[in-house]
Each structure stands twice: as structure tokens, then as C-alpha cells.
Specification:
By secondary structure, this protein is α/β, with parallel strands linked by helices. The chain contains twelve helices and 15 strands. Strands 3, 4, 5, 8, 9, 10, 11, 12 and 15 form a nine-stranded mixed β-sheet that branches. A six-stranded mixed β-sheet has the order 6-2-1-7-14-13, with helices on both faces. Helix 1 runs parallel beside helix 3, helix 1 runs parallel beside helix 7 and helix 11 runs antiparallel to helix 12. The relative contact order is 0.16. The structure holds flavin-adenine dinucleotide (FAD). Flavin-adenine dinucleotide binds next to helix 1, strand 2, strand 3, strand 8 and strand 12.
Length: 374
């Protein structure tokens, strides 16, 4: 019998999803002793907009997540500065992570996993884990001590997200609403309804002005209501490597490995896909293939990095110049033919020849994001 001692650092989203995925895919002739360490005193959720597509949530069959879905949407609306709309028709949800993550942690423990709460793993301990355990899984988020200690040549980009939890708002929508408008921030701001509350936030640019711009965004979109909570947290993306350590037995998953989609900053889906690949590698006895399988998966596609740099650098006028070739409403997703808008992107590229590679990278990044990022 193959017996494995597996240590997971972090009992948040990536930690519990990976634990459950490992338990679900464990071969009958194997024994896994899985211990997850969480520095908080209870199974914990970090800050999140909590948007996730049905397509990707339903991939994760190790847990029945549906009762933690707070609201159902037809898809996502992505608004451009000139008011043009990218409509991605694809059922999606806001999920209540405050109950979802603890419920997953409970199932993980019921199935034989150990969760040590209030245990902050130190760099010294990690070196011991890497020596003594069969596998060490870094699920400890964007600032990962596992990555810094055991896979120091892995690099992850980090961006701060800020968000209000709003109560009593009269804003309603059947869609998750994203807005690219440089008056508020260089990437995008969002309004995600969530039952009685609403997640309203933006990707931060500079601490001095971010909250003021979020206030201006809330006022312009007539969100109303009152702010019940105000939070900020970093997001890890564009990871360069997800495996290492002295025995190549250290695997990074979720934001620890920079798996979040750089363009949409959707990390729940990337975590689900990353955990699935990780558990498959372990079950198949092919742990050595983990880095290669992740780095060649569409969640880590090279177009994302170029696309997000380009989007960040453009002002509203530039974006309007490129989007003038598009119809007022660009419909993608369920039932819409693939490649329908390629000609419009080519026209924009031909009119701005030096920007053609950037526009094509955005086209590719958005097409992949539709399927693999939220
Ligand atoms: C403002 C904002 C909005 C977002 N919106 C969305 C969205 O709508 N949809 C989406 O898909 N994604 C979204 N994301 C991204 C998503 O939240 C993250 O990708 C996801 O939470 C990453 O999960 P993780 O478990 O890898 O890391 P984390 O959530 O950071 O969890 C890491 C865990 O490890 C623990 N830990 C850290 N160090 C140690 C240690 N040394 N010892 C023990 N435990 C440790 C922490 O306490 C934590 O519980 C958003 C992120 C932000 C900041």
C-alpha cells in the first residue's frame, strides 16, 4: 500500500479545496495522512468578491457547494468607458465564503483529514516538513511563506483589491457587473449583488486615493445603502513556478502559486482547477509532472500578462478608440458562435498596427477567461 504523509500550509480556500480533492481522488490501494495548518483560530475566508461561474463551480464535485450560493446570475456584464457592453452569458453565482469554507473544512475533517487551527507555520517548521513529509502543499495565499522559504525562485505578482460590504442597497442586477473606467482605477471596479448585501470594490492603484475613488464609483453607479464593512487584501497572479523544494516535493496551489487570472482576478476557479491537477498528479504517482501540467494549462496562458499590462496602461480615450469597431453590445457565451468578433479586433489592430499584438493578446486572454477564470 502506498502511504503518504501530506502537509497543507493554509486552511483557507485553496487548503480545504485541495484537501477534499485529494480525499476524493485517492486510489483504493493508497493511504493519505493529510494535515492542514491554518493560522487563524477558525476555518477562514479572506476578502473576495465571491463571483464564480456555474461551469467551474460544478467541476468541483468533492463538495456540494450549491447551498452556499447567495445569488444566481445570468452571467457577467463588462462595461467599457464609452458605455459599450461585453455581455458574457453564462450562469454564475455569488457564493457565501463565510459558510462555504468552514463547511468544506468540516467535511475534510469528517473524512479523516486533520485541521490544526491557530497554527502559524514558520519557515523553520517548513524546512522540517519538506524533509520529513512526502508532500508539502503551499496553500497559504499571495504572501506565501511556503513559496518564499521552499520555492524561492518562484515569482508571483501581487495587486491589492479593496471592497465594501454594502447593506440596504436598492441596486439590483441579474448580472455580475464589471466596469473598466480609468476615473476609478487602472483595471476595473465591480458591483456583485449577494442576497441582502452587495460586494462593491476595485483593484487598487495608490493608497491615498483608492477609497475616495471607490466612493465616487458607488455614487456614480447609484449603489446607495450603507457600508457595513471596509476591507483590503492582496491577490497573487502570474506565477512563474509552482513546484520545488529540496526533493521537488513542495507544490504551490491557489494564490500561493500565483494562479489567479491576471485579467479578471478570478481566483476561486483557478484554485479549483489547480487542486484538481494536483490531486490527479498525486493519485497517478506523477507528482514530478505537477509544475509542467499547471504551467501549460490555459489558467497560466502567456497572453494574460501582456493583456493586463496593456489594459492597465491605456486611458479611457485609448480604449474607446480600440472599441469603436465593436457593436454596442458584444454577446459571448451560451449559444453565441465562437470567433464572432475576431474581425472587429482585426480592424482595430489594422487601424493601430503597432498595437496589433496587444489587441490579439486581449482577444485571446478574454476568450480563455470566459472558460477558465470565474
Ligand atoms: C478584493 C478581492 C476580490 C476578489 N474577488 C474574486 C471573485 O469575485 N472571484 C474569484 O474567483 N476570486 C476573487 N478574488 C480572488 C480570490 O479571493 C483568491 O484567489 C482566493 O481567496 C485565494 O485563495 P487561497 O486559499 O489561495 O489564498 P487565501 O484566501 O489568502 O488563503 C490563504 C490561507 O492561508 C492561511 N495562512 C497564510 N500563511 C499561513 C501560515 N504561515 N501558516 C498557516 N496558515 C497560513 C491564511 O490565514 C488563509 O486562511 C478576489 C480577491 C480579492 C482580494
Amino acid at each position: 500500500m502506498r502511504s503518504l504523509d501530506i502537509r497543507i500550509v493554509g486552511g483557507g480556500l485553496a487548503g480545504v479545496i485541495t484537501g477534499l480533492q485529494l480525499q476524493q481522488t485517492k486510489p483504493k490501494d493508497a493511504e493519505y495522512r493529510i494535515t492542514a495548518y491554518e493560522m487563524a483560530d477558525e476555518p477562514y475566508t479572506t476578502l473576495c468578491g465571491e463571483g464564480i461561474s456555474h461551469r467551474n463551480l460544478s467541476r468541483f464535485t468533492a463538495f456540494d457547494s450549491m447551498k452556499h450560493c447567495a445569488q444566481i446570475f445570468q452571467g457577467a456584464h463588462w462595461w467599457l468607458p464609452d458605455g459599450k457592453l461585453l455581455e458574457v452569458k453564462q450562469r454564475c453565482y455569488t457564493i457565501e465564503r463565510k459558510t462555504w469554507i468552514p463547511a468544506m473544512a468540516e467535511k475534510f475533517q469528517k473524512q479523516g483529514g486533520t485541521l490544526e487551527l491557530g497554527h502559524k507555520v514558520t519557515p523553520e517548521e517548513l524546512k522540517g516538513f519538506a524533509k520529513d513529509a512526502d508532500l508539502v502543499i503551499g496553500a497559504d495565499g499571495p504572501g506565501s511563506v511556503t513559496r518564499k522559504t521552499l520555492v524561492p525562485d518562484a515569482k508571483v505578482d501581487v495587486k491589492l483589491g479593496i471592497q465594501y460590504r454594502v447593506k440596504g442597497s436598492s441596486f439590483t442586477s441579474d448580472w455580475l457587473e464589471f466596469y473598466t473606467d480609468k476615473r476609478y482605477c487602472s483595471e476595473y471596479a465591480w458591483v456583485f449583488p449577494k442576497g441582502d448585501t452587495m460586494n462593491v470594490g476595485l483593484l487598487a492603484d495608490d493608497p491615498a486615493g483608492d477609497w475616495k475613488r471607490l466612493d465616487a464609483f458607488m455614487a456614480d453607479k447609484k449603489v446607495g445603502g450603507s457600508v457595513a464593512q471596509k476591507e483590503a487584501y492582496p491577490i497573487g497572479f502570474s506565477g512563474t513556478k509552482v513546484q520545488g523544494g529540496p526533493r521537488n516535493n513542495v507544490l504551490l496551489v491557489g494564490d500561493s502559486g500565483g494562479m489567479t487570472n491576471p485579467v479578471t482576478k478570478g481566483g476561486i476557479c483557478a484554485t479549483i482547477l489547480g487542486a484538481e491537477i494536483l490531486a490527479d498528479c498525486v493519485a497517478q504517482g506523477k507528482v514530478a509532472e505537477y509544475n509542467q501540467r499547471i504551467m501549460t494549462h490555459p489558467i497560466m496562458d502567456k497572453s494574460f500578462r501582456r493583456a493586463i499590462h496593456f489594459i492597465t496602461e491605456q486611458d479611457n480615450e485609448d480604449i474607446n478608440k480600440f472599441s469603436r469597431w465593436l457593436p454596442d453590445v458584444v454577446r459571448v457565451g451560451d449559444g453565441e458562435p465562437k470567433g464572432k468578433y475576431f474581425t472587429a479586433v482585426l480592424k482595430a489592430g489594422l487601424a493601430n498596427l503597432t498595437k496589433m499584438p496587444d489587441l490579439l493578446s486581449i482577444y485571446r486572454a478574454l476568450a480563455l477567461s470566459k472558460d477558465y477564470s470565474w
